[in-house]
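Quick question about two entries, pasted in order.
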Amino acid sequence: MESSIVDSKNNPRHRPLTPPRVLRGVLCLIVLVLTAFILLVYFGFWTAVVLRFFSVHYSRTATAFFFGSWIALWPFLFEIINQTKVIFSGDCVPAKERVLLIANHRTEVDWMYLWDLALRKGREGYIKYILKSSLMKLPVFGWVFHIMEFIPVERKWEADEATMRQMLLTFNDPQDPLWLAVFPEGTDFTEQKCLRSQKYASEHGLPVLKNVLLPKTKGFYACLESLKGSLDAVYDITIGYRHRSPTFLDNAFGVDPSEVHIHVRRVPLRDIPTSEDQVASWLMNTFSLKDQMLSDFYSKGHFPREGIEGGLSTMKCVVNIVLVIILTGTCTFLTFFSSIWFKIYVSLVCAYLASATYFHIWPSPILSL
């Protein structure tokens, strides 16, 4: 059955914003912030900094275990608590590939829904993003992003190239699982940005796109060039929402979206050209196809070949939540009833995390080994 979908932030909310939803959302955010903070203080410093002196591989493995468990709380919030349907379509991809993900950037929370796919493939602790640097400066959440080695960018290639290439070179070890996510549009979609993008396209003989912005090619090419010897494939991901693009608070309070549709196209690395000009052309063609796919989605209400992934296991999610809460609760108990020296240690780690973010000294020499 076909149905018209208008994906706009101006549409009415799918569910009303009631006091119980606000209370539930606030409580969930408090749990997410507190558990992240405790994991950072008690485990993040040791796994991502101290252990890295001895082994980068085991450092990343331990960090992925603890913070992958924390990331798994978010899909539980979206799909189980808020009852948002996440529908996957396209190619069924294997679980253990090292991949580069490219996706359209419809709204500020697209990247969070990639966690839903990563969780189903056991890669929630190994997914890394290229994110704007302001997100890396957030208290607590920004610390997690640094510990997990997300790459901060200013969205100006002259300023970003050196940092990107330096960090990308640290991801070349084939024994380290990797999902590196890139949003080639460089910013989320708005009507005003779309008009500017269309004007630029018209003036330069490029495709005029309606549902996505023109992709920036240099960062994508740098990722391919730096990682080509250790990647298996590129996952071309297209995200569509019914019927309203959500904000972060919409997600937290469970008022939107009603459905998230994620289409996955697996492209073997051998099918992607190697020269910079050819890669730029390939990426432009990919986004032209993505634009048409989104037009079809808004008219039909779905992407082709749905049902490639099942729903989340409620039991596994509950077990994960219980383990995270027991782990963080035990650490909190120890803090209150420990010696003064232990409390001093906790204070010093907090000071380190705060100063590292405030003075923007991430990644430290240790993290970039």
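Here is the second entry:
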Amino acid sequence: MSPLPAVRPPGQSSIVVLAIAAFVIVTTEFLMVGLLPALSRDLGISVVTAGQLVTLFAVVVMVFGPVLTASLSHFGRKRLFVAVLLLFAVSNAVAALAPNLWVLAFARIVPALALPVFWGTASDTAARIAGPERAGRAVSRVYLGISGAMLFGIPLGTLAGDLIGWRGAFWLLAALSLLVAALLHQTMPAMASGERVSLAEQARILRCPRFVADVLLSVLVFTAMFSGYTYLAETLERLAQVPAAQVGWWLMGFGAVGLAGNWLGGRWVDRSPLATTAGFCLLLAVGMGATVLLAASHAGLALALAVWGVANTALYPVCQIRVMKSAARAQALAGTINVSAANAGIALGAIVGGLSISSWGIASVGLVGAAIALLAALGAAWVGRIRPA
């Protein structure tokens, strides 16, 4: 299939709107991380069991993402993005009303179906706006929504959950989803959609060994990231003895330093995607390991979390752009396959982290994550030996 032509209008303003939407979407996905302790107490379940809601979300994204994105790739982008935000509003309202774990699990399935459609098409749209030479920077601007969610959305949601309960936090997120849907409808111009292309034709990228290797590398990277991040709030409470009312502020600091990682990742990934991946994986290993070793000292803990936060946030756009660059003729599908790969890693990370807590205690999750991050850095060197198609 031929690549879609680069889009000139509506320019950079559309990227800003997409970043705002990304903020809401990432906050919806990861708010659960900050609410795990309170949610587990309220529903009478263990933190490890509640943590599997993160796994459920990730598995749904992984399984259904590529098929849904390929099937909807011909829809107008504005209409598609608005529909995604409306689905997020409904699902957050259902989560707020959930009387038990099963209804809450169902409420997580709806946004999990819509999330990969957004990320695949939003990344592709931003890359088309900017052109191939600046695709990395454009996608990193959309991914500022991730940094914004970690800086404000997730921590403030955690604080709101402490003040008004975890249900109140989901109600606030439902209202915000509606507001952003209205913003998209009012401000984002209609954009040309691609022609309908069969899933089989788009799936030809899976025949490329380098593309498949890049996708597998993303699985490993995100497994490393989320073996620790899924249980970060619990780590701060139990290992570092941070008072529950202050955990949200620590998570906000984690997100704040992530802004630097997002900027650095966007600048460097266009030059050398694999080297940038390896470098940030090494930094991730240092930060996660140091968080455990320095947990007794809040000054040392803050420094370790800063290193972890920079690497963690940088790897989102780095992995997305690396995979999209290896499949230039089907970037929307490639971006969504990477999102599925990332969510496979998120699911594995939540499982691995939960198993390590059950077997060796809360201190183990940072060390296990650091070891996997080192493997990912080695994996990036191995992928570099595979010749692109």
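Reply: The chain has one domain: 12-192+202-383. The longest helix spans residues 144-187. Hope that helps.
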